[in-house]
Design goal:
seven-stranded antiparallel β-sheet; globular
């Protein structure tokens, strides 16, 4: 008799659970606020950084320029404003290269200051707009950042979330 009552109680409980009882819903934890305030790229504090989707942008310490780091992969781009279109980049596995304005790339060591730049949470996101730094024009939308160097006609683009960038038609990804 006890076995039969236990069996019936189990069936009743299972029926109640599958009869449309609402599950307990907990809000998902968020790693960062959904909407950071917009900050003009020209007004990024020297000791801070800004967010752009899955990318973090900080000042280069060695010279006047920026470092862009994909948060998930640590793919990094070093862009000094004095460049005539070349950039340095770091792959997800830590190898560093110079990507020349016209053509190939060569291995080249570079300090990207990843730990310094990633150590702080960004206080804002890059505001949409058009910015000029020496020979570079930077156009920011909600979905991508386009860089154009007028001295050599070079272009670079990063999109908001993907771990890759395009430099003069060549796509560089973070795949290990």
């Amino acid at each position: 008799m006890k076995t039969r009552l236990l069996f019936v109680a189990t069936l009743v409980t299972m029926g109640a659970l599958s009869a449309g009882a609402a599950p307990i819903r907990m809000p998902l934890a968020q790693n960062e606020p959904t909407e950071l305030p917009p900050v003009h790229l020209t007004q990024m504090p020297k000791d801070s950084n800004l967010a752009f989707g899955r990318w973090i942008v900080g000042h280069a310490q060695a010279e006047n320029g920026i470092v862009l780091i994909h948060k998930d992969t640590r793919l990094a781009i070093y862009l000094p404003w004095a460049s005539n279109g070349w950039i340095n980049y770091r792959t997800a596995d830590g190898n560093s290269f110079v990507l020349w304005s016209r053509g190939g790339s060569d291995p080249q060591g570079r300090d990207y200051d990843l730990n310094r730049i990633l150590a702080k949470s960004p206080p804002g996101r890059i505001a949409s707009g058009k910015y000029t730094f020496q020979t570079w024009t930077v156009t920011v939308t909600d979905f991508q950042i386009d860089f154009h160097c007028s001295s050599m006609g070079c272009t670079m683009r990063i999109q908001r979330d993907p771990p890759s960038f395009t430099h003069n038609g060549r796509t560089i990804g973070a795949v290990k």
